[in-house]
Design brief:
Blueprint lengths: L4 H9 L1 H8 L6 H19 L10 E6 L5 H13 L8 E7 L2 H11 L5 E5 L13 E3 L10 H17 L3 E10 L13 E3 L15 E5 L1 H15 L3 E9 L6 H4 L9 H9 L21 H24 L18 H9 L5 H23 L8 E9 L4
Parallel strand pairs: 1-2, 1-4, 2-3, 4-5, 5-7
Antiparallel strand pairs: 5-9, 6-7, 8-9
Helix pairs in contact: 3-4, 6-7, 9-12, 10-11, 10-12
Bound molecules: S-adenosylmethionine.
């Protein structure tokens, strides 16, 4: 099902879409402490090979820039985490199909001479000047059909070749095998606005495309082959395996425990979290073997860490412990040591909950396989057309 430019524009041009993206409620603990650092780490990996160009500005095209989250993530990364230089070294252009998004982003960030937002459809926009980074975040490419994604990537790769440039291309799409939508795992494009609840009435359909690593890589590869552009490397990253927003809306998988809310509760000192609810108990859909195998391993690690935290609070959960990966193996020992410094009971619980949130985030960030098992799947390709 193809979606016309007008349909996408209509979805995002409704003022509540802009309000949604700017609302404080959207910036919950998971977004700030879990998702944004992960996105920045992906962007940091993407620009790492460009770090030898320190004296030059980093030229960025952000596709589907919305209200400017990509710009904020990148400028924070440049000023705080990367050794590439400060945000002044950015030459940033955000494009978005929605004029309201563009207007909002321009009002927020467009007063700097090195930042611009323009209304454009990536499916038809012609590119001329070279960029070092073709960025995307917040899954804009999932609005395109698989064929449209191929064409959009071909436009980018053609631009890279015509300018004989070197760059990184970050393609952010929805992961096909997220626990948020196990009942839809058999399909790679479906109506993302569908409702299970009759009381919600008729919603406008929003057709979105979902990707496994294999499918996304095939499309990226086909686009580079079609243009004859040399690829240095492909890498894939899963973001939000357990904490995608729809774990808490239950919109596409009503039986799912509300993992995102539960992690937010762990991060909120004023709330006491029922750790037993955090246990991975998800009925998986039918999927290729490596996906099911990943969830088998990952759920064992996740549940062992939750059970370790419960034990620190003198509670026992019926979990068969498994051997943990090295990155999180020290959790229980390190937590017990820290707890010895604390005497007050309620601070004890807060500390355990906060440390549990931290180690679960660490588990996701270090064990994500880039298969398309999270809310977001980032595909990154590094292209070098300098010698063609
Ligand atoms: C979920 S929002 C993400 C916005 C922003 N990047 C962020 O991370 O918050 C997806 C954005 O993609 C834009 N978009 C969808 N289809 C597009 C297209 N064909 N060309 C350009 N932008 C598009 C939408 O208007 C919307 O602003």
């Amino acid at each position: 099902m193809k979606v016309s430019p007008k349909q996408i524009e209509t979805v995002y041009d409704q003022s509540n879409a802009v309000q949604h993206y700017l609302s404080q409620g959207r910036r919950d603990g998971v977004k700030v402490l879990w998702e944004e650092p992960f996105s920045r780490s992906v962007f940091n990996r993407a620009i790492a090979p460009l770090k030898n160009q320190k004296e030059k500005k980093l030229r960025v095209l952000d596709v589907g820039s919305g209200t400017g989250d990509g710009y904020v993530l990148l400028s924070t990364l440049l000023s705080e985490e990367s050794d590439l230089g400060s945000s002044e070294y950015l030459d940033y252009l955000g494009i978005d199909i929605s004029s309201q998004m563009v207007e909002t982003a321009s009002n927020l960030y467009g007063n700097c001479s090195n930042v611009r937002f323009e209304c454009a459809d990536i499916r038809t926009r012609q590119l001329q000047r070279p960029f070092d980074l073709y960025l995307s975040c917040g899954v804009p490419y999932s609005h395109l059909t698989h064929e449209e994604l191929y064409q959009a990537l071909k436009t980018i790769v053609t631009n890279v070749c015509q300018n004989r440039s070197q760059c990184a291309v970050v393609v952010d799409v929805l992961g096909r095998y997220s626990i948020e939508w196990t009942p839809k795992w058999q399909e790679s494009r479906w109506d993302y606005a569908m409702s299970f609840f009759e009381t919600e009435g008729d919603k406008e359909p929003i057709w979105m495309s979902f990707y496994s690593q294999q499918h996304l890589q095939e499309i990226m590869q086909q686009a580079t082959h079609a243009v004859g552009c040399p690829v240095e490397k492909f890498t894939f990253f899963d973001r939000s395996i357990m904490v995608g927003r729809h774990t808490s809306t239950g919109q596409f998988n009503p039986g799912l425990p509300q993992y995102r809310n539960l992690i937010n509760s762990l991060l909120d000192p004023s709330q006491e979290t029922q750790l037993s609810q955090l246990i991975f108990s998800v009925e998986l859909g039918s999927a290729p073997k490596h996906i099911l195998e990943f969830f088998r391993k990952f759920s064992g690690w996740w549940n062992t860490l939750v059970s370790d935290a419960a034990e620190l609070l003198d509670k026992s959960l019926a979990v068969e412990p498994v051997e943990l990966p090295p990155e999180v193996r020290e959790f229980k020992a390190a937590a017990s040591e820290e707890l010895q410094q604390i005497s007050e009971k309620h601070l004890y619980r807060q500390k355990v909950e906060f440390m549990l949130a931290k180690v679960l985030r660490q588990l996701e960030a270090t064990q994500q396989p880039g298969y398309g098992v999270g809310h977001d799947l980032f595909g990154v390709m590094w292209l070098d057309a300098t010698e063609i």
